[in-house]
Amino acid sequence: MWDSKQLDALAAVASQGSFEQAAEKLGLTASAVSQRIRALEEETGFPLVTRTRPCRPTVQGQKLLRYIRSLEWLERETRNELEQAGRPYIWPIATNYDSLESWLLPALAKVAETENLLPDIQADNEEHTHKWMNEGRVMAAVSTRAQALAGCEVHLLGYLEYRLMAAPSLVARYFADGVQKSSLKRAPLLVFDRKDNMQTEFLRLYFGLNAERCPTVYIPASAPFYQAARLGLGYGMIPDGQGAASLAEGKMVDLCPGKSMRQNLYWHCWPAASPRLAALNQKLVAAARSLLQQP
Fold this sequence. Notes:
Elements: H1 4-16, H2 19-26, H3 30-44, H4 59-83, E1 89-96, H5 97-101, H6 104-112, E2 117-124, H7 130-134, E3 140-143, E4 153-166, H8 168-174, H9 181-186, E5 189-191, H10 198-207, E6 216-218, H11 222-230, E7 236-239, H12 240-249, E8 253-254, E9 261-269, H13 275-291
Parallel strand pairs: 1-2, 1-3, 5-6
Antiparallel strand pairs: 3-9, 4-7, 4-8, 4-9
Helix pairs in contact: 1-2, 1-3, 1-4, 2-3, 6-13
């Protein structure tokens, strides 16, 4: 059995990023924290944190942190059951931005109708939310990755459909003669951030165009991204949930009718540590499936 004080030291260093700040949090000296980490490393046989600025957990350290956080979540849940105080369940989850802007909050609201919960939401690119799971920082995550992490469960939720859209004013300026490789290279391309490759894949797939040759506007938030497209600042991939009404009203134009990109979404979660957490996962998956398009 690992020493709880040593585990606390590892968690503090990982969250604070340095031995000095971890020591301040724990009310110890930096030397004492270092000694506890060193003892834990000798016990496990692996280096657990990098001695850099900031300090970061190693692969083995991340695995041990998942164990530490699972103990914390289980303790919190057990305390609540013993006290029967009806405390809300704090549910740490990670999600991509478009899900947060569209279906996730309505899904959580459905779950909250019967479950007393407080979501603790972290947002990241859809291909990177799994890292929050891998680091043990959340209990569940929305991701485009179908492959489950070791020891993790994964459930297909449904999909979002994206289309290449632009405002009529931008179409008049750049695509009056049609949407072609040459006009796409001249018009400003909207990209969410430097992790976002959806526009890149669409232009490569349908036009054989390298997106790096397009003038690019970065808009790192889902609602402002759509607003930028509506205002004619550029063209980009818009999910049907955001763009369908504007298309119908003629306020947006589908630049490539019949062509789209489907983004499957998966719910990654650690095996439930309690019946309550199992119920939360089941209800969230059911709610998401009722809100998303299904294969």
